[in-house]
Amino acid sequence: EDKVVQSPLSLVVHEGDTVTLNCSYEVTNFRSLLWYKQEKKAPTFLFMLTSSGIEKKSGRLSSILDKKELFSILNITATQTGDSAIYLCAPWGAQKLVFGQGTRLTINP
Amino acid sequence: NAGVTQTPKFQVLKTGQSMTLQCAQDMNHEYMSWYRQDPGMGLRLIHYSVGAGITDQGEVPNGYNVSRSTTEDFPLRLLSAAPSQTSVYFCASSHDGNRGELFFGEGSRLTVL
């Protein structure tokens, strides 16, 4: 059975802090792993990771994948209140994108 | 670009009623899928399709039917609504149903009384 576990489930930090969100997975026929950000509406795409050890960066966000240990992390540096959202990790496995429960991140000013 | 369009955005049903959530995409994507999202549960896959005429079950298919007669459309049918189907439903599509970005519709909030 496909399984995706994100931790922590909830995180509250102060503006300017750096946070690390974790995702471990077990899926059949793994191909890639996606990260999404969800605010009020539909999830918005952040990263797609296919190879181990290659960091993807977009501004203050970065992510890396370890296909041997079956996990990924999402880092956000110098957090801002606009980073408050649910962050979802989702590996592709056998034609199914399997989502974790998400990490609810709250940034306090 | 319209992307993925879902209708209706809001719907209230009584237990036992049937309805169809419509989903259309204009990106010529072969892969389409339906998810439901409940508080604290992430997104759970209901049904998916890898092309016209091909559908398959996801994690939570019971109580839902789908069909894929065209590449563009992937409707989700609730045959006899139950309160447990109260949720937010997302339709999504992708060019590649194995590794690519999944594009989401805006969601449909369904309440079953």
Could you explain the architecture of this structure?
The complex is a heterodimer of chains A (109) and B (113). Chain A has 109 residues and is mainly β. Chain A is 0% helix and 60% strand. Chain A has strands at 3-7, 10-14, 19-26, 30-38, 44-49, 56-58, 61-66, 71-76, 85-93, 96-97, 103-108. In chain A, strands 2, 4, 5, 9, 10 and 11 form a six-stranded mixed beta sheet that branches. In chain A, strands 1-3-8-7-6 form a five-stranded antiparallel beta sheet, with no helix packed on it. The radius of gyration of chain A is 13 Å and the shape is globular. Chain B is mainly β and 113 residues long.
What is the helix/strand order of chain B?
Answer: EEEEEEEEEEE
Assembly state: heterodimer
What's the Cα radius of gyration of chain A?
13 Å
Fraction of residues of chain A in helices? under 10%
- Helical fraction of chain B equals under 10%
Low-confidence stretches of chain B: none
Give the count of helical stretches of chain B.
Answer: 0
How many extended strands of chain B? 11
Show the largest interface. A-B, 23 and 28 residues
